[in-house]
Amino acid sequence: MTVTAIVPDYADRIETADAPEKFHGNAVIYVHWEEHLSFCSALAFPLPLAMPFGALVSEVITPYYAAHPDAANIVWDKVVWDIDGGKKAPDFSASLEANGLGHKSLVRFWTPGLNGWAGSAS
Amino acid sequence: MSGAKKLGLKQRYAHMTRGLDWETTYQPMDKVFPYDRFEGIKIKDWSAWEDPFRLTMDTYWKFQAEKERKLYAVLDSFAQNNGQTGVSDGRYINVLKLFLTGISPEEYQAHRGFAFAGRHLRGVGPRVAAQMQSLDELRHVQTQIHTISHYNKYFDGLSEFRHMHDRVWYLSVPKSFFDDARTAGPFEFMIAIGFAFEYLLTNLLFVPFMSGAAYNGDMSTVTFGFSAQSDESRHMTLGIEVIKFLLEQHPDNLPIVQKWVDKWFWRGHRVLGLVAMMMDYMLPKKVMSWKEAWEIYFTEAGGSLFTDLARYGLKVPKYADVATAEAEHISHQNWAIFYQYTHAAGFHTWMPDAEHLDWLSAKYPDTFDKYYRPRWELWAKLEKEGKRFYNNALPQLCQCCQIPMGYTEPGDPTTIAFRSSTYKDQKYHFCSDGCKDIFDNEPDKFVQAWLPVHQIFQGNCGGATVPDVLAWYRMNVGADNMDYVGSPDEALWNEWHAEKLRKAV
Prior knowledge:
heterodimer; A: alpha+beta; Ubiquitin-like (UB roll); 13% helix; elongated; B: mainly alpha; Ribonucleotide Reductase, subunit A; two-stranded antiparallel sheet
């Protein structure tokens, strides 16, 4: 369904605010650590899609989630990944793009055995 | 007394509106009123509009001037008696910061929206009512600014409210709500703001702020609330009149109106999450919990309203049940957002103390201890260890309501609700089914949303670092933002109270 507008060509007049070319060569990638809601929502990062998945883990996910006491205990090869709604085992040496990520992709991960502070998902 | 007999109010009103709805001849009516047809609303008889107030302009001015004389007398005496030192606690001022940055600018938006509706609806009854409401809203923003300006002499976070409203990330939530309403046609605006906001949800906005002010010793804000109250009853009447009028005029209006009611109920519910957090976390002396307020003002009052409207075929808004279930959670989830982004907030945050946590446990016996107390315990522990918890990344935002996507799945408070749509090969993310439906109905509108996080990434917000962005917000770092404990506000408050104690001894 389209917008009910006073002009017939509304759809031709608009500008998509977050079109991929507006991000200076980066794509917006969202990351979310499941069962750790001390981080109130998924986190957003502008990243080059050529970046290896392993670098996303070591350069982005690790430092930004470090404030949680569970962070130090993550065993990365036991982590369960979900990329845009599908369970995947990402190739850490391949790029984000080769792992199927694109602009505004959502990466969710579960850390078996680590379920938040006192198991409360916090 | 000799001469002309004075006219009664009813007669004066008839004279005031006489001929206002004349048929134009130089230009066709549809060109003079280009906006009141395109939304698909069918009006057969504009004269069926009932205006129960029949307020004439001179009565309006006389009445408002009287009220405002009283308000300004109270404000003067509040200032002369240093009323700011008598509120419950220095933390209370943060409620006013939230109000002035998040609500008062929307009064101005409402003023402009009703002026537009008043110009563009061709019926004389709604035009008069909408124009008077437009004046009310302009007076409200002025009296709010005057009332709160007194606090600006002493406390941080208030001085740049107008600038902040257009830029700061969380203020895009109420701003985008009104931008959406004001870029709709006049009928949708009337349903959005007149009915959904001013009728259905208004008590959840004004009662918490005004009774919060009363409980916390802020007589200036209470008086503003009283002064606005008689206007609000007129606004509520307009809100209910517009919905009945549209539904009575033509059966084809029902599906259009139902869609607007669904949309604006959900959007209003999301904006009111800020009030939920204010009630449960920011008032030093609590009035009632958000959940209790929701039960009284939405579940009960809204329930009987929709029973009444059922005769027109109008149903309870879609996802009202989800919103009611969320009343258990949103205040905790929202305060958690501000706690971890305190460095980017224009008001102070704080850790709830033991008594406060127990109050929350008592008010939310089924959920607080299980899901939210552990979060505060973890953060309290980290604070004690000198590792106060901050979120140093930017949050994912909902494309529709623009709130960080921190809301959880219905029935599972341990899992974030992720919803998404693909439109013209692009992905869009939503916090809820309610927000996703709104996007899916009007994607071309919502792909234009100014999402603060994405705008920062695009380089449109002053720079790439947090200090750059805060400077662009005109946030006075170290004074406006961060925790209350350790703030200049707290130091000032403690100084006032040390003085009071010295004098008492």
